[in-house]
UniProtKB/TrEMBL annotation:
It comes from Solibaculum intestinale. The active site is at 270 (proton donor/acceptor). The keyword Metal-binding does not apply. Keywords: Hydrolase, Metalloprotease, Protease, Zinc. Belongs to the peptidase M14 family. This is M14 family metallocarboxypeptidase. It comes from the Bacteria. Its cofactor is Zn(2+). CDD domains: M14_Endopeptidase_I. The keyword Protease applies. Residues 8-300 form the Peptidase M14 domain.
């Protein structure tokens, strides 16, 4: 099947164009109310299936990790095509696999950060002066949103420990990466995602990051017992390894908050291997390696 989503970097207009085409091609796709970024860009959430406890996929949390947006959009495209045509993915009949199930996709949680990483100061619009100051002249590795808050440090998961570690490492305010903000959910992007999760009560969640080819799956005593089994399945399908984060990455993240808030499984998948931003040339090999894993996550 020919893919709608190609290897074009996911600037915001490109993502919007893909979503318009997906809507026109697959009428069973629905769109939940959009969120808005700091600079007013839309944060899209597409759903398929009527199940109340949908599986959630999130990509594009960090600006420089924009390859994750392409991977998730490609997976959504391939999944929809197989569902519509009665086709298979990784030898699995998609219609049968998704019977009675529902899925939700947030292709890019941090559209401002992605624009900054891809387009430089032009992507920061009215915040270009701040981004210029914080980036030191290099926006390619920009991870934060448009006001210098790292969205994967802005959730209420070990917040006191996170703030202590930030101060120990000399992080006291907005930065291109790792500053958690003034308080949990201080940013419109994280506030919207937390609100979405509380309203939808997702069965489990996957958040795509890069890089490292590892899967993070546990957080504290609220981690469900079935999470280890699910993580083993995901690792077996992809060849990725299971691991635990350390340092600042241990606190404030979406995966940790989801587990702690709902007592349901959540996984951080670190796609690919190398140095962020991973090049466009990595897209096809990264995608081919994780497609089966992403499908299995929908079935569990």
């Amino acid at each position: 099947m020919q893919s709608i989503v190609t290897n074009h970097p996911p600037v915001h207009q490109t993502v919007r164009n893909y979503i318009n085409t997906l809507h026109a091609t697959y009428p069973f796709l629905e769109e939940l109310p959009s969120g808005r970024s700091v600079l007013g860009r839309e944060i899209f959430c597409l759903t398929m299936g009527k199940a109340k406890d949908k599986v959630l996929y999130v990509a594009g949390t960090h600006g420089s990790e924009w390859l994750t947006c392409m991977v998730l959009l490609r997976f959504l495209d391939r999944l929809c095509a197989a569902y519509q045509d009665g086709g298979t993915i990784a030898g699995v009949d998609v219609r049968t696999a998704l019977l009675g199930r529902g899925l939700a996709f947030v292709p890019c949680l941090n559209p401002d950060g992605v624009e900054i990483a891809l387009r430089g100061y032009d992507g920061a619009l009215r915040n270009s002066s701040l981004v210029r100051k914080l980036s030191g002249g290099d926006t390619r590795c920009w991870q934060a949103n448009a006001r210098g808050v790292d969205l994967n440090h802005n959730f209420d998961a070990g917040w006191k420990e996170l703030r202590k570690l930030e101060r120990e490492q000399g992080i006291f305010g907005p930065a291109c990466r790792q500053f958690g903000g003034s308080c949990p959910e201080s940013e419109p992007e994280t506030w919207w995602l937390a609100k979405l999760c509380r309203a939808q009560r997702f069965r489990h969640a996957l958040t795509l990051h890069s890089q490292g080819e590892v899967i993070y799956w546990r957080y504290g005593e609220r981690t469900p017992q079935r999470a280890r089994m699910m993580a083993n399945v995901l690792a077996s399908a992809s060849g990725y390894t299971l691991d635990d984060p350390d340092g600042l990455a241990s606190y404030g993240g979406f995966k940790d908050w989801f587990i702690d808030e709902f007592g349901r499984p959540a996984f951080t998948i670190e796609l690919g291997y190398g140095e962020n931003p991973l090049p466009v040339s990595d897209f096809e090999p990264v995608y081919s390696r994780v497609e089966e894993m992403l499908l299995l996550a929908a079935m569990m």
